[in-house]
Design brief:
- There is one protein chain.
- The protein is an alpha/beta fold.
- The protein has 3 domains: 79 residues; 170 residues, 3-Layer(aba) Sandwich (Rossmann fold); 94 residues, Helicase, Ruva Protein, domain 3 (Orthogonal Bundle), CATH 1.10.8.60.
- The protein has 15 helices and 6 strands.
- Strands 1-3-4-5-2-6 form a 6-stranded mixed sheet, with helices on both faces.
- Helix 2 packs antiparallel against helix 3, helix 7 runs parallel beside helix 8 and helix 10 packs across helix 11.
- The protein is elongated.
- About 4% of the residues have low confidence.
- Bound molecules: adenosine-5'-diphosphate.
- Adenosine-5'-diphosphate binds next to helix 5, helix 10 and helix 12.
């Protein structure tokens, strides 16, 4: 004769569950573990007693075993989760800056500047629903050509909050959690709108660097793309523009490219732009005696980027300063109070100040590489 024990067993299960919850809430890991195991044992007994529900009771019994196993660990996960959120927030705060860069500080790149200015202006103006401003722009080109500068000027012109994110750094710092960081980042960007989110080394999210890394990258990327889509869908009034930059656009996959239909080539400066960049980096100094066209021609032949030209200018400037201030090292003995009473001696720059500087600045780019950028621009740019 079989005796139906399901009534008392169910009552015992309810009691054990309540005791488990109480112990778990009070942080009493030992009792919580025991009670979870008790629930599992009762469920197994129920499975024997009520064969028609056997499978369901056994599944639940297993679930309680897992819970018993996780009692201590669960609390740790919850705790770490809380701490990580704060850590995310404080990390994101370190990425924020107020940019004071203006469009005038960028030499050349007239078309690019024009495009970016238009994007920003359109986003701000009242407009019919059909006019949808770009939410994300991809800037690609050789290193040092002014991609970061363009992003800074976009933020500077709008007085927007500038988030400067280096994708590779976020991935290595928040490996596995980087997607959560991205979501927190966009929450803050919305809160502090208007915002420019600049993501440098964007290719780090697309490149496969071993299985684990690519999984973390993939998650970070999909969160980022989802956030971008979210802004697109919501017709949100908050202005959040994502500017992604890469030196290796050919490493980006189709999924990424499709989310960034606006892809702008930021090339090496032409001769006119080289002249402008020299003027910008020599601001406040007399360069009327140097041949800008000759210098620009040499910069162009050496495949110099804006960054290389800035280094060249620094070297030439230091050549002049050292020549005019032979006693500079002796000043090191003076107190700061005495120092501020004296001025640095300067004179107009001469072509010979640039002697030697060209040899010291080596461009990291070759003709083949430039052609590769141009081909990619023809195929995917626009
Ligand atoms: P990228 O992000 O493309 O690698 P950056 O914008 O960081 O390059 O440029 C590095 C530095 O080179 C800038 O801070 C600036 O001093 C100089 N530079 C680059 N491009 C230009 C430019 N078009 N006009 C003036 N300075 C430039």
């Amino acid at each position: 004769m079989t005796v139906d024990l399901s009534g008392p067993l169910l009552a015992a299960l309810e009691k054990a569950k309540k005791e488990y919850k109480k112990a778990s809430d009070n942080g009493n890991i030992k009792v919580a573990k025991e009670k979870a195991m008790e629930c599992s044992r009762i469920l197994k007994a129920l499975a024997k007693n009520v064969p028609s529900y056997s499978k369901s009771y056994l599944d639940k019994a297993k679930e309680w075993e897992r819970m018993a196993d996780n009692v201590g660990k669960r609390r740790m996960v919850e705790k770490t989760g809380g701490e990580t959120l704060d850590e995310f927030k404080s990390y994101i705060e370190t990425l924020i800056s107020k940019s004071t860069v203006t469009w005038n500080e960028i030499g050349g790149l007239e078309q690019v500047k024009q495009l970016m200015m238009e994007t920003i202006v359109i986003a701000g103006l009242k407009k019919p629903d059909a006019v949808k401003p770009w939410k994300g722009i991809l800037l690609f080109g050789p290193p040092g050509t002014g991609k970061t500068l363009l992003a800074s000027a976009s933020a500077g012109s709008l007085n927007a909050t500038f988030f400067n994110v280096v994708a590779g750094k976020v991935l290595s710092k928040y490996f596995g959690e980087s997607s959560k960081l991205v979501s927190a980042l966009y929450d803050l960007a919305k809160e502090k709108a208007p915002s420019i989110v600049f993501i440098d080394e964007f290719d780090a999210l697309s490149l496969s660097r071993g299985m684990d890394m690519s999984e973390a990258s993939r998650r970070m990327l999909s969160e980022l793309l989802a956030d971008l889509d979210g802004f697109q869908d919501k017709k949100s009034g908050d202005f959040v523009l994502t500017l992604a930059a890469t030196n290796v656009p050919w490493d980006l996959d189709e999924a990424v490219l499709s989310r960034f239909p606006r892809r702008i080539y930021v090339p090496l400066p032409d001769e006119k732009a080289c002249q402008e960049i020299i003027k910008i980096h020599m601001k406040g100094l007399d360069i009327s005696n140097v041949s800008l066209s000759e210098l620009a021609h040499k910069c162009r032949l050496s495949f110099y980027s804006g960054r290389d030209i800035a280094s060249l200018c620094q070297l030439a400037m230091w050549n002049m300063i050292r020549e005019e201030n032979k006693d500079l090292a002796e000043y090191a003995n003076l107190s700061y109070k005495e120092l501020v009473k004296r001025s640095l001696k300067i004179r107009p720059l001469k072509m010979r100040d640039f002697d030697g500087a060209f040899e010291k600045v080596k461009a990291p780019i070759t003709k083949d590489k430039i052609e590769k950028y141009e081909r990619w621009n023809e195929e995917y740019g626009g």
